[in-house]
Amino acid sequence: CHMCIHEEMLKDVVRTRSYQNVITQNNFLFKDKIVLDVGAGTGILSLFCAKAGAKHVYAIECSQMADMAKEIVKTNGFSEVITVIKGKVEEIDLPVPKVDVIISEWMGYFLLFENMLDTVLFARDKWLADDGVVLPDKASLHLTAIEDAEYKEDKIEFWNNVYGFDMSCIKKQAMMEPLVDTVDQNQIVTNCQLLKTMDISKMSSGDASFTVPFKLVAERNDFIHALVAYFNVSFTKCHKLMGFSTGPRSKSTHWKQTVLYLEDVVTICEGETLSGSMTVANNKKNPRDIDITLKYAINGNRCKVSRTQHYKMR
Ligand code: SAH
């Protein structure tokens, strides 16, 4: 359903209200400025910017939704301020050489899935004025570990015996696909660790591929069935720092969290460390897909394991 994704995004109040608050509470960023809305969808961010006093907003959208955005802009009386351009950011001609502000909601599952970040960086390098701002300008990826016996049983072990048949070959596939779902904060066993911060105003496309170490320290005695990744975004150019988190301790969003099941059930005691590294890279064949390699090890009282696992988001 074509409307559905936009309906889901607009009804995600954590997401949409954050952008609205950033824009309406920081008029100084928009007043009399030229704004570029990268991937405008229904045009909601452009409308917020126009209301905040932007001189002109260019709303670029490649899908059919661009036609709707045009009509929405007209219906709401912003035709003089907002120009909707239907096409790919990488292919369109912008009527102005430079813009003061680039605003975009480009984040995917696991932050980087679907790789729209490249489109924002492309727009930044091509059109952003030297003293221009990108909103949001910071995005960070975080990791924690959870107890998840019940759901792992349901999603993974299920394939061992399906109406009496062994379908365990599917189990390998299921293990490799990160699961996008909401995690209950009571399942969290360790601390939450920052893996990577990206500065959207300075980074290059290659910075979205990386290997980073982690050390997760248990806050109680428990089992670990999965690692959980989530992201935060922030708008540091506001009067006061603004942003939101998609973590399990925050109000849930349509991005939920990303669950990576472990081959081993790790028994961990309070104070012990599960350490390792995570490698994230765009798939060579299909750059919209993400390859994740997880290395983890524990040398604890109850459990000693060391393993490397590969995952693919698609
Ligand atoms: N800004 C809207 C929509 C965000 S979803 C909102 O906040 O509600 C991202 C949008 O970007 C989608 O509508 C998608 O069609 C569009 N998009 C993705 N890649 C694009 C590209 N390369 N050029 C133009 N639009 C793109």
TrEMBL record:
Record's protein name: Protein arginine N-methyltransferase 1
Lipoprotein in keyword set: no
InterPro entries: Arg_MeTrfase (IPR025799), PRMT_dom (IPR055135), SAM-dependent_MTases_sf (IPR029063)
Protein arginine N-methyltransferase domain span: 137-300
One example GO MF annotation: histone methyltransferase activity
Record field: catalytic activity: L-arginyl-[protein] + S-adenosyl-L-methionine = N(omega)-methyl-L-arginyl-[protein] + S-adenosyl-L-homocysteine + H(+); L-arginyl-[protein] + 2 S-adenosyl-L-methionine = N(omega),N(omega)-dimethyl-L-arginyl-[protein] + 2 S-adenosyl-L-homocysteine + 2 H(+)
Major subcellular site: nucleus
Source species of the chain: Aegilops tauschii subsp. strangulata
Pfam family, one: PRMT_C
Annotated EC: 2.1.1.319
Cellular location(s): Nucleus
